[in-house]
Amino acid sequence: MTSQKRDLHGVILVDKPAGMTSNRVLQQIKHHLRARKAGHTGALDPLATGVLPICLGEATKFSQFLLDADKAYETRAALGVRTDTADADGQVTEQAPVPPIAAEQVTSLLQSQFTGPVEQVPPRYSALKHAGQPLYKLAREGKPVPVKRRQVTLYESRLLDQGDNWLDLYLRCSKGTYVRSFVEDLAVALGTVAHVSRLRRLAHGRFGITDCTPLVDLLETPPESLITQLLPVDTCVAELPHCSLDEAQYKRVRHGNPVPLGPEYEPGQVRIFFDDLFLGLGEISTQGELKSRRLVNTDLLE
Q1: Which sign, positive or negative, has the C-alpha torsion 249, 244, 60, 66?
Q2: Going by C-beta distance under 8 Å and a sequence separation of 6 or more, which residues neighbour residue 246?
Q3: What separation in angstroms does the CA of 221 have from each of 9, 31, 195, 213, 235?
């Protein structure tokens, strides 16, 4: 088998296993397919499992749209113990008694304080950057970690189940939400401390866990067979309207020139096509003029 890299383009939806970094998952897929270029669309912590879209080749140009997408999770909050990373992979930093907690109390708190716009302090151990350095790297080096509060949106939060020292929770939220911070803040509101002991991403944008394939199964699939199952390059932006161009318009777009379409077109971002060939993204002005915003290398896709 040759080790030569090849240009592959499309999206793979992985059900990430626990105990592995998102980058490790990415590298295993990339190596299995001998893909020249690949990227993921938002890291999951090593402890976490679930939906992890992997973009290959020209699809990486549109991964930001999934980075900005809403997410949904199931998580277990282990009550009475705080860790430095806010999850089970960290070192214990505090223990506290767990008061009696009624389901009604949790539900009331979730509805009153943990639904809608909320402010969070991201964990010290996170991939956010300060002066070009990830916060987790500064934290590991024992350096001061400047973490600022920021606003996120919790669209839905509810209690799924509970025990004497744990809560199982569902959370549907905006980009930038940290489930670890959500769990810690909820515990404080309940009069104790907590950390995440289990986390599963159930949805990432329009992709759900049932759309994904476990990593082990993907790696056991022959590469040539797996390549035929790649989702289209425009998968990450499939919710945007479709705009078809004729040959003359196609040539103008490829040369970076605007294309007059007419006022009957709705203003906003669109996916541009010539026949069945995806060209990239464009934006239609209020005057009905299309300008390209991010184009693919069609020579690679044809």
Answers
A1: positive
A2: 274
A3: 18, 13, 36, 11, 22
CATH architecture of 71-204: 2-Layer Sandwich (3.30)
Q: Which residues belong to the active site?
A: 45
Q: What is the pLDDT of residues 225-273, one digit of tens each?
A: 999 999 999 999 999 999 999 999 999 998 889 999 977 788 999 999 9
Q: How many CB atoms lie within 10 A of CB 80?
A: 18
- What CA–CA distance (Å, rounded) separates 92 from 85? 9
CB of 62 closer than 8 Å to CB of 236: yes
Q: Which fold has domain 240-301?
A: 2.30.130
Rounded to a whole number of angstroms, the distance between the first and last alpha carbons of the chain is 26
CB atoms within 10 A of CB 242: 11
133-159 tens-digit pLDDT = 555 554 565 556 666 788 999 999 999
